[in-house]
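Standup notes, protein team

Yesterday: finished cleaning the Methylopila turkensis set.
Today: Adenosine kinase structure.
Blockers: none.

Input for Adenosine kinase:
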Amino acid sequence: MSEAKYDVLGIGNAIVDVIARTEDDFLVAESLVKGSMALIDEARAETLYGRMGPAIEASGGSAANTLAGLGSLGGRAAFIGKVKADPLGEVFGHDIRAIGVDFPTAAATDGAATARCFVLVTPDGERTMSTFLGAAQALGPDDIDAATVEAASVTYLEGYLWDPPAAKEAFRKAAEIAHAAGRQVALSLSDSFCVDRYRPEFLELIRGGTVDLLFANDSELKSLYETGDIEAALQAVAADAKLAAVTLGAEGCVVLAGGERVAVPAAPVDGAIVDKTGAGDLFAAGFLFGHVRGLGLKRSAELGALAAAEVISHVGARPLVELRQLASDRGLI
């Protein structure tokens, strides 16, 4: 097996995040359920954008956020995701390349506009998301570049993109290429509602060996195993998955692999929790960075916890400081 050019190849929704602070009254007025993620159409996207307050626009999407964190730690990454050749598509492409992530996917010249996610952050740091998936859903098998997959130590798949049938085919194609090249495949469950829709398929991916490394939070894992008992869910995933990293909010995380169980506390947040957007994405970034370098389960989880703590200390789903320096200061790398 040749040396990998990339630590991680991420495949997911190419989305531009539109982030604005708001009050709870605005959520009520717009019939938005606080803390939820709802899918919206293009017309609703235009209406909501017109009613929001001042916003920050930056390329986002779960897998892309993870790659941004990986790059901040000094990792090498590539991303496959679909945008349209429009102004927001240019924003996404510029932003992700600017942080050193290779982005080889060709932009669509017709069809739906580039995806965008409106992230409304209330004073308590909770985020309420309304997402127009647009061009991101046009990702298909033809967008999977075999050479890019073969060049990555880990191909990281975003569960959010499991809805479109063509994207599922793209995922499966990428996983087959990765395994044929002796590489690993990781999956993020992304959202408990996503798990509710595709539980049998996600379980098949885990139990059948398509997925080598599973990322989930406590809600997603309980949904996966249809239980309200997190301990029962942890025992179940320990039996099913080769390696699982499960975040537990303020309780930290648990990593399970081959009968081994490692618990790591949450890292302290510098100041108040401002915005929880991207916490899981950045945990995955830190964990993957350590995992690819063979740093062990505990150190990888500690890196994940550190990255998650940094991103929830400010508005936005990507780090504002160099995570590599932060990790070095804490003696983690």
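Follow-up from PR in the comments: The two ends are 26 Å apart (CA to CA).
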